[in-house]
Amino acid sequence: MRFALELFGAAFIASVFGSMVGLGGGFVLVPLLRLFLGFSPADAAGTSLVLIVANSASGAFTYFLHRRVHLKIGLLIALGGLPSSILGAMLSVHISARIFDALLAVLLVAVAVDMAWNAERRMANRLESHRVHEIKGMSYRGALALGFVVGIFLSLFGLGGGIVIVPAFLYFSELPAHAISATSHFAILLTSPPGLIVHVLQHDVVGKDVVPLVAGGLLGGPIGARLSLRLRSPQLLIIVAVALVVAAITLVWREL
Prior knowledge:
Layout: H1 2-21, H2 26-35, H3 41-65, H4 71-91, H5 97-123, H6 140-157, H7 162-172, H8 177-201, H9 210-230, H10 233-255
Helix pairs in contact: 1-2, 1-3, 1-9, 2-3, 2-10, 3-6, 3-8, 3-9, 4-6, 4-8, 5-7, 5-10, 6-7, 6-8, 7-8
């Protein structure tokens, strides 16, 4: 019971944070599963995807109500990510724990540094219009290619793909920050299930952990989505950068 409560608390916090910045919560949960609970890379990725699906479902619903989602771009990313999410789940059982942690830490730090260093330049002249569907998104080919990359990171690391979607939107689209979080969440929701199914078939998902993870994800998702609507764009970028660095530090700490 104590473990279930701890897992629920971790899922709730990860869900709030992930929904708030559009990264799906896995960037918080996976380091916790690896560092404190001793999950293998495949088990951590598969179990994290349970939270990501629940978190994305509840968070995306809230974003839909506020009309923040760019549907066309989100659908194209999901289409590109469906096959690669299956491939990522299959690769997760063949990667060593040390390589998994090292690659994940490097990835998190690289994205965080990029966001912190270029935040002002990328946000300059970025519209804050509430009519998201009228804003230019990105090319169809670009969205499909982005989706393929997202699928790999989603299922291989259990991060949900937002860690790739958010920076890509900031570089290659004109979407406002809140629409970026919302559309990222929507794409994650559509792309996650195939990878989760493969992880389940590979017995990577711990059955007894599903209920507290889903409960934490369902409760935390709407809270994070509402909080994001109250924060200004630069604040969201700072939250993303800080969270990624903290996650990377925990992974490196494990190997010391």
